[in-house]
Amino acid sequence: MPFDVVLTVYQSAHSLGGERLARYGRHGPLGCAMALVQESGPLVLLRGWVPAFLRLLPVTLFSFGLYEQLRQLFGIGYMD
Q1: How far is CA 39 from the centre of its chain?
Q2: Quick one: which H or E segment has residue 48?
Q3: 40 and 14 belong to one structural domain
Q4: Domain check: are 21 and 38 in the same one?
Q5: How much is the mean pLDDT over the chain?
Q6: pLDDT tens for each residue of 26-60
Q7: For the chain, N or C: smaller number of CB within 10 Å?
Q8: Solcar repeats at which positions (predicted)?
Q9: How far is CA 42 from CA 5, 8, 18, 46, 79, in A?
Q10: Rounded to an integer, what distance in angstroms lies between the CA atom of residue 57 and that of residue 3?
Q11: Quick check: 29 and 18 in contact, CB under 8 A?
Q12: Helix (H, G, I), strand (E, B) or coil at 65
């Protein structure tokens, strides 16, 4: 999620203006990332990772299980 966090903050800085624009929007996305890390530490770049993981986990588990069962049904066998 680092790119999503940086681009969201960078783009919102341009629409919100003021102090936020001066802090995050003047030196491009790389400058925005450096400002975020200086203010909040490197873990700020992982913001939003847990909800994204929890959203994708059930779909992934279901699709892999379904894929293996379809392979078995068609006589291909399980993947090793």
Answers
A1: 20
A2: none
A3: yes
A4: yes
A5: 91
A6: 899 999 999 999 999 999 999 999 999 999 999 99
A7: C
A8: 1-73
A9: 12, 16, 25, 8, 39
A10: 21
A11: no
A12: helix
